[in-house]
């Protein structure tokens, strides 16, 4: 389970310690616009239906109605879950904790990483370096089910692996796979950084089609670059869009100072690439 180094450092090991064209408007702004539109239509309808002797609709009436609409929209927005909350709730049932044991250069090693269920038969997609060289692999599902697991498929070229668990939960909840994100899209890595399970962070896509060098002189290409925090224990976990769809699998973080902690730049394998290893159709 050695961790690749050089410029790209995996965020998935801990030693003993989801294409849209165009820009989407925030949901809260859409809700506000809808309320204001309905208020305006109501005022127009009232004016058209006024009979003789009915007081004339004034600008003050219009202003009061608009203000009521704004207040109602703001109240609704305050009660609505944020995009991050929506993404978290949607993806959490598919999240997996991966724990490994093995022997490295320094002796016995324990590792922690993340994975995500991507099919109804329980296939778990993760980063290859999370489980590479492990003597034992154990997985914990969102409902608490624990099981041993083995590597069923792997692709070193994309640092991707598929695990098969010996036992599955009574109800398997696969994640929904999304399309390719665009620069500027909100994204949310979900994983277990530093052993803190089920942790969500948020940021935006900084660039696409990036290449980084990892251990053994290999290069990972076609990656999603993002600025949301990732740390050891995040690798193999899903990178989510605002709807909770998986758009990538977290593979590492930029490491110019040879440190294993987050310095502002993370990378993920696009789900179109990673999902292909698990037999998913191209996105």
From TrEMBL:
It holds the Pfam family Trypsin_2. Residues 1-20 are annotated as: Disordered. The keyword Membrane applies. This is Peptidase S1. InterPro entries: Chloro_Bact_Ser_Proteases, Peptidase_S1_PA, Peptidase_S1_PA_chymotrypsin, Peptidase_S1C. Belongs to the peptidase S1C family. SUPFAM superfamilies: Trypsin-like serine proteases (SSF50494). The chain crosses the membrane at residues 29-49. Keywords: Hydrolase, Membrane, Protease, Transmembrane, Transmembrane helix. It comes from the Bacteria.
């Amino acid at each position: 389970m050695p961790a690749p180094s050089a410029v790209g450092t995996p965020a998935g090991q801990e030693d003993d310690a989801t294409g849209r064209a165009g820009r989407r408007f925030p949901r809260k702004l859409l809700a506000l616009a809808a309320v204001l539109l309905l208020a305006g239509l109501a005022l127009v309808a009232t004016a058209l239906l006024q009979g003789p002797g009915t007081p004339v609709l004034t600008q003050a009436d219009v202003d009061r109605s608009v203000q009521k609409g704004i207040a109602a929209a703001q109240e609704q927005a305050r009660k609505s879950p944020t995009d991050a909350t929506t993404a978290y709730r949607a993806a959490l049932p598919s999240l997996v904790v991966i724990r490994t044991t093995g022997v490295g250069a320094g002796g016995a090693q324990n590792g922690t990483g993340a994975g995500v269920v991507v099919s109804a038969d329980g296939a778990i997609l993760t980063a290859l370096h999370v489980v590479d060289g492990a003597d034992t692999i154990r997985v914990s599902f969102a409902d608490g089910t624990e099981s041993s697991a083995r590597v069923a498929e792997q692709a070193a070229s994309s640092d991707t692996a598929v695990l098969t668990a010996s036992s599955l939960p009574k109800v398997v909840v696969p994640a929904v796979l999304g399309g390719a994100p665009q620069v500027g899209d909100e994204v949310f890595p979900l994983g277990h950084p530093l052993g803190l399970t089920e942790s969500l962070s948020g940021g935006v896509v900084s660039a696409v089609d990036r290449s980084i060098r990892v251990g053994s002189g290999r290069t990972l290409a076609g990656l999603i670059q993002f600025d949301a925090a990732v740390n050891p224990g995040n690798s193999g976990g899903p990178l989510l869009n605002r709807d909770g769809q998986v758009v990538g699998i977290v593979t590492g973080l930029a490491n110019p100072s040879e440190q294993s902690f987050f310095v502002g730049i993370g990378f993920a394998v696009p789900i179109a690439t990673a999902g292909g290893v698990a037999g998913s159709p191209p996105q």
